[in-house]
Amino acid sequence: MLAISGGRDSVALLHLLRDAGFTELILCHLNHGLRGKESIDDAAFVRRLAKKLGLKCEIEAEDVAAVAEKKRISTEMAAREARHGFLLRMAEKYDVWVVLLAHHAEDQAETILGNLCRGSGMAGLAGMHTVQRLDSGLHLVRPLLHVRRSEIDAYLKSKRAKFREDSSNTSPKYRRNRLRHEALPLLNDICARDVVPQMLRLATLAEQDDDALQRQAMDFLTAEGRVLEDRSLVISPELLALHPAVSSRVFAFWLREVWELPGVEYEVIDAALSMLAADGPAKINLPEDKHLRRKAKRLWVE
């Protein structure tokens, strides 16, 4: 399946895939309902393109603004959730669990910069992954993640390919646009160089380091006697001796995967780590009105 907006990047990826021999693609387009007639015309463009190329096409519409207001989340987050939900429905319909996305190098740089400004750790500095498996079973594949926007433009020009222009991409209303049009050019000017390659290198190094630490945490947590049958975590000398970079990942995996708790972010993990101290709290609050308790050298959720 190919997630396609009708814009330059996804259209370029479509033609690249066709050139590479992928002839059984399923084009998936979600109308977010954020740009009125322009959004409707985008969907019509994708439908015509699919028909011209003889490809299957799935188009749905969702009022993303209404969802964002109802859930009290940002429009960007609501749009992302809507897209993932749509793609999951299509995966179940066709029993196809690989989705191709057209994120490119500049998108990656913007993601890393945004994550940095939010105080992200290694995982955030790694940015988007070329291959990402979601909990739903979907595999998101980004073949263009190290391809520059200028290369995409040159390819489209050589193909004389038509695509849609998204007017919202120039709006300062969205943080990503300001990172793209203001922050990155300013960094290029300050550093007297193109910073995108350096940010891509940062992502590669951060991904390697994060993977190594995650493996250490997994090896520790899955060793015999670490987690008991009731899912409680044993406060052992070995746990107390772990480097914070590893123990924080132990707690993250234990809470997110073993206890299947949503919303486990930095603040929760930091509070959980404080319970290991001799004078640490015996109880902390967790998402969804749950609590983490400590007693008799064990930690558990209730």
Name the descriptors:
single chain; 302 residues; alpha/beta; Chorismate Mutase Domain, subunit A; 4-stranded antiparallel β-sheet; elongated
SSE map:
Blueprint: E1 2-3, H1 8-19, E2 26-31, H2 37-53, E3 56-61, H3 64-71, H4 75-94, E4 98-100, H5 105-117, H6 122-125, E5 131-133, E6 139-141, H7 149-159, H8 175-191, H9 196-221, E7 233-234, H10 237-241, H11 244-258, H12 266-274, E8 283-286, E9 290-295, E10 298-301
Parallel strand pairs: 1-2, 2-3, 4-6
Antiparallel strand pairs: 5-6, 7-10, 8-9, 9-10
GO molecular function: ATP binding; tRNA(Ile)-lysidine synthase activity
Catalytic activity: cytidine(34) in tRNA(Ile2) + L-lysine + ATP = lysidine(34) in tRNA(Ile2) + AMP + diphosphate + H(+)
Enzyme class: ligase
Write a brief structural summary:
The protein has 302 residues and is of the alpha/beta class. The protein is built from twelve helices and ten strands. It has helices at 8-19, 37-53, 64-71, 75-94, 105-117, 122-125, 149-159, 175-191, 196-221, 237-241, 244-258, 266-274; strands at 2-3, 26-31, 56-61, 98-100, 131-133, 139-141, 233-234, 283-286, 290-295, 298-301.
Tell me about this structure.
This protein has two domains: 2-169, 3-Layer(aba) Sandwich (Rossmann fold); 222-301, Chorismate Mutase Domain, subunit A (Up-down Bundle), CATH 1.20.59. Helices cover 52% and strands 13% of the residues. The protein contains twelve helices and ten strands. It has helices spanning 8-19, 37-53, 64-71, 75-94, 105-117, 122-125, 149-159, 175-191, 196-221, 237-241, 244-258, 266-274; strands at 2-3, 26-31, 56-61, 98-100, 131-133, 139-141, 233-234, 283-286, 290-295, 298-301. The strands form three sheets. Strands 7-10-9-8 form a four-stranded antiparallel beta sheet, covered by helices on one side. Strands 1-2-3 form a three-stranded parallel beta sheet, with helices on both faces. The protein starts with a strand and ends with a strand. The model has no long low-confidence stretch (mean pLDDT 96). Residues 238-300 form the tRNA(Ile)-lysidine synthase substrate-binding domain. It is an enzyme of class 6 (ligase). ATP binds at residues 5-10. It is found in: Cytoplasm.
